[in-house]
């Protein structure tokens, strides 16, 4: 197969564009079919709002499961990119083999453990007695497809890092199309409700998984999946690099759990369930911003990793500039949408006017800081792509710590609905600190590469 992008010789601006856009679209489509799930669930007759709240409570578990895919995928892909920049294909092949085996082992372990403890987890994550049955139905089926979720997401990173961004996009689109077609069939035609949504998700992930693995086992890529050469040293390096995105996603789960718990505590039984439903919709909208941005930054990590390995600081600086510019442009568009017409998004989940009014208000507040958040994503994920995880995790955790503190302080000082201001506060203060720290770190790093 013809190489889509030559990381060694193509112009940086063109590389960023050609790698970022397909990855961004892939993540956008991925979010879209997640939203389609929730849209159909929210429109189930009589029980839609409660079922939607139940699926929202499952969110942290679903996200935590996917974080293991990023632990291995984003942990191994930058290392593989650096090896490719150093022209060391033998080592790059070993990294891919080890990552594939790691995902197999992790998938089995997560499936067994999560199914065993899912009930106390759901209660801990904020499920009331009313919404627990819906949450339990959904997550029990979803966890059975853990291997498909991890393989499709984790191994797709190794397609992107070899320059096949369009192929990686197709894998996500395949899953999205399957999910969109299967959701109404299982939920409404077969009257399976929440269980139908879970089955549709698992089957769509299985389709993506088959596509990803068939591509990486084929001769279409220069570095394909092989067996053997397993080394603890490689596993350790992958885990060290992947620890940053893993901890970021894991801590996001903690924040969501804390947010749900605080809402239930201060909102009370009736109002708490209503706020949880609104929070689920708000977070769905936020995913339309953060996931495509992570597609931009994740798809272009291979440019930074490759040129870091090749010791080419000028190309690194150019890449950071164009990546940040693209993230900012996208976030500006989404900011305008969030502040002007969020009601059109909310109405696809519910027709209850009380829910609509509260959720529209919440989206406008929750997204006030997304312009600076775009810079945060570009810089933190860029550092991860270069293997500089010590700094990326520090900058990311600082922002999340601010959010964590705010969700406990705000309800004590004001009405519980103002908890939605925790996000913009962290999205402003966090990136400011990141920009200052990044400028110091990169100045030193680029100077070392020149020597």
TrEMBL record:
It is a multi-pass membrane protein. Pfam families: MatE (PF01554). One of its GO terms (cellular component) is plasma membrane. Keywords: Cell membrane, Membrane, Transmembrane, Transmembrane helix, Transport. The chain crosses the membrane at residues 15-35, 50-74, 95-118, 138-160, 172-191, 197-217, 238-262, 274-298, 319-338, 358-380, 401-422. The keyword Transmembrane helix applies. NCBIfam families: matE. This is MATE family efflux transporter. It comes from Velocimicrobium porci.
